[in-house]
């Protein structure tokens, strides 16, 4: 296995057994360098066992290909992903293989699993490779795993694995000043127990020769000179505001700040029992979503999203409030006018720029391949439709497909993990030559032939900018940023460029620190993190013990009908919150069609959607767990009444009462006892 001089330079401390972060640009061969470290580790360390952690499912397969090629079949490699279905336990796989490549979530589940086949300890591994290690912060799964490592280290629980982090973009952690950026880099190093963050010094010129940075261009347009469709949407939102009679509310329509305002309004209204105010807030958010879609793509896409929302409202709601009738009538009264304006709306200037870029690159005969990055799944879907329908796009050879997040979302548009894998395979093979992607494709995706990257109206941080730019690997690549002149998106992109330079300065300063002072700072940060995490755990426990579960009542978030108590709830596999009270079934209906989840689970399978019997509000889904049917509840579908008042929780982990684990044997025994009494 041959390495370039700059790769040798950065891995030397790792070959000596030291914990390091390798900081190299995308395309410089971080994975290859890590593979060599793993190979030497397996060759030289007694009873060596390596685990490679990734943060995206599709990177498991990509890393398997790289490690298999470099390790040349001498060691047993296993891959573990969340979408694999029934499989041998994680612990069994770890014991029977030399190298594991897996998503971080699976390792974390194995570390906490009580089952012998599944359970592992960090001490079972001698080398821990953390891909995209800049995610090792706050409450990410990477940092949860590394916090366990630090706890063992500081309490002298040995042995511990060597740690090797890989990143192209450590970031600044939101800091805009040099001191804050330095603190962020030091904290990252502390979290990964890093001896030093390594980047080429002596061989920097060779790195620059090898890395071909894409040519960056700003493609800027004027805002729409006339926008009758957007003006009508804002007029309707004004009418809803007038109906609410809340003059203190901002009317900064079509912004993410406004979205945050109406989300908060919805929560406050739910907790206060103001159902009509809550539904107005929900409808205002949908109008705001439509404005955001209209700004990004076409008026017809915005209207389609709005129409889909109102179609679902009519199809699912059983009990309709007076305010809902008024809101439905308001939309119906203006639907024809909106349709007319959307159909004859002026072209979005950003789309005109995008069309010009794609025609120029894909109209040539040099076999281009590209990625368009956009903010949401909805806008990705709309851009895909535009590519299929825009006349100017039919004259060039574009074979496009979506690459968006797996799992369900509030937007209702998603891909399965298998879909993602298939799209990436086709893109690598050249069957597809354009991806319309969300952030799921920003990190780690290695397509050597990709030579066009477009960031389309994005408002993100410097890490996303660096990662997206790094997808353009081929020679004479283009990295285009499309936005309106004077927009927040443009200001943010310019800020990101400054933050990237700040990040580089911060890393250089940390690298030059006196080693003794550096190590002392790292130890201090690690102890601080340990104390902080212990305090947070205590706060969490205290929050969950505020009230006895039987003293908390559950209500439908939409119609406020009482449906049970906190004591009816149990946790399945530590994550799925189910109501085990047999009387709960009188409050909900189950759809005949099961929820489609393109994954096989070890002990359960999905059933139908469950909805409030009184109003039709969706509550979650039914699962069949070891042959027992259980209703799984979404936390946002429930309102909790405590002795101190009502509240809506964002996460189940934030409810103010304890929820015990589901006991399958006890549940079955109880059901048998109930049947015998009957």
Distance between the termini: 72 Å
Which structural class fits the helix and strand makeup?
Answer: alpha/beta
**Quaternary structure classification:** single chain
SS element count, helices: 20
Summarize the main sheet.
Answer: 7 strands, parallel
Radius of gyration: 27 Å
Low-pLDDT stretches are none
**Helical residue percent?**
40-55%
Order of strands in the sheet with the most strands? 3-4-2-5-6-1-7
Number of strands: 23
Please state roughly what percent of the residues sit in beta strands, choosing from under 5%, 5-15%, 15-25%, 25-35%, 35-45% or over 45%: 15-25%
Average pLDDT works out at 93
Give your account of this protein's structure.
The chain is of the alpha/beta class. It has a seven-stranded parallel β-sheet with strand order 3-4-2-5-6-1-7, sandwiched between helices. It has a six-stranded parallel β-sheet with strand order 8-13-12-9-11-10, with helices on both faces. A four-stranded antiparallel β-sheet has the order 15-14-22-23, covered by helices on one side. Helix 9 (228-244) packs antiparallel against helix 11, helix 9 (228-244) runs antiparallel to helix 13 (322-343) and helix 17 (462-469) crosses helix 18. The chain is globular and about 70 Å long.
């Amino acid at each position: 296995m041959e390495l370039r001089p700059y790769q040798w330079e950065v891995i030397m401390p790792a070959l000596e057994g030291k914990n390091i972060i390798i900081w190299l640009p995308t395309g410089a061969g971080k994975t290859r360098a890590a593979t060599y470290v793993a190979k030497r580790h397996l060759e030289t360390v007694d009873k060596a066992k390596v685990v490679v952690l990734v943060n995206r499912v599709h990177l498991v397969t990509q890393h398997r290909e790289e490690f298999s090629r470099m390790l040349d079949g001498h060691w047993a490699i296993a891959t573990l992903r969340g979408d694999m279905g029934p499989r041998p336990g994680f612990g069994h796989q770890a014991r029977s293989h030399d190298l594991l490549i897996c998503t971080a979530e699976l390792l974390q589940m194995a570390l906490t699993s009580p089952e012998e086949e599944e359970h592992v300890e960090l001490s079972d591994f001698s080398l821990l490779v953390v891909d995209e290690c800049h995610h090792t912060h706050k409450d990410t799964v990477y940092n949860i795993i590394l916090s366990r490592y630090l706890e063992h280290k500081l309490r002298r629980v040995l042995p511990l694995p060597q740690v090797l982090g890989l990143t192209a973009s450590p970031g600044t952690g939101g800091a805009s000043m040099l001191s804050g950026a330095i603190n962020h880099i030091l904290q990252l190093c502390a979290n990964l127990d890093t001896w030093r963050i390594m980047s080429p010094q002596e061989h920097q010129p060779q790195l620059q020769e090898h890395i071909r940075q894409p040519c960056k261009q700003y493609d800027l347009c004027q805002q729409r000179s006339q926008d009758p469709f957007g003006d009508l949407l804002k007029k309707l939102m004004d009418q809803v505001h007038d109906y609410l009679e809340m003059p203190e509310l901002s009317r900064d329509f079509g912004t993410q700040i406004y979205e945050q305002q109406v989300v908060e309004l919805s929560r406050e209204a739910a907790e206060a029992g103001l159902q009509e105010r809550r539904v107005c807030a929900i409808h205002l958010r949908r109008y705001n979503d439509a404005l955001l879609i209209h700004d990004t793509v076409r008026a017809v896409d915005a209207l389609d999203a709005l129409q889909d929302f109102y179609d679902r409202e009519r199809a699912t709601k059983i009990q309709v409030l007076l305010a809902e009738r008024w809101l439905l009538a308001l939309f119906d009264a203006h639907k024809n006018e909106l349709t007319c304006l959307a159909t004859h709306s002026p072209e979005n200037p950003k789309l005109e720029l995008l069309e010009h870029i794609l025609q120029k690159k894909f109209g040539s005969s040099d076999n281009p391949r590209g990625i368009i990055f956009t903010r949401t799944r909805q806008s990705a879907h709309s851009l895909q439709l535009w590519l299929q329908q825009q006349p100017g796009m039919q004259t060039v050879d574009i074979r496009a497909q979506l690459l968006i997040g797996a799992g369900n979302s509030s937007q209702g548009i998603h891909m399965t993990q298998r879909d993602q894998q298939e799209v990436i395979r086709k893109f690598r093979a050249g069957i597809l030559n354009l991806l319309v992607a969300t952030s799921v494709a920003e990190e780690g995706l290695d397509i050597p032939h990709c030579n066009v990257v477009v960031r389309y109206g994005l408002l993100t941080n410097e890490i996303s900018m660096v990662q997206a730019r790094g997808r353009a690997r081929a020679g004479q690549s283009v990295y285009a940023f499309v936005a309106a002149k004077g927009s927040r998106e443009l200001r943010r992109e310019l800020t990101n460029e400054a933050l990237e330079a700040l990040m580089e300065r911060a890393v250089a300063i940390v690298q030059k620190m006196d080693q003794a002072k550096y190590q002392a700072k790292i130890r201090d940060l690690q102890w601080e993190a340990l104390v902080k995490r212990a305090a947070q755990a205590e706060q969490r426990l205290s929050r969950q013990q505020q009230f006895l579960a039987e003293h908390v009542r559950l209500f439908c978030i939409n119609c406020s009908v009482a449906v049970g108590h906190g004591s009816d709830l149990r946790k399945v596999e530590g994550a799925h919150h189910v109501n085990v009270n047999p009387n709960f079934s009188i409050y909900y209906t189950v759809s005949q069609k099961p929820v489609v989840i393109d994954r096989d689970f070890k002990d359960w399978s999905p059933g139908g959607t469950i909805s409030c019997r009184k109003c039709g509000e969706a509550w979650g889904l039914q699962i069949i767990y070891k042959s027992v049917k259980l209703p799984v509840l979404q936390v946002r579908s429930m309102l909790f009444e405590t002795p101190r008042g009502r509240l809506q929780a964002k996460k189940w982990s934030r409810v103010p009462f304890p929820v015990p684990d589901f006991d399958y044997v006890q549940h079955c025994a109880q059901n048998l006892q109930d049947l015998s009494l009957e």
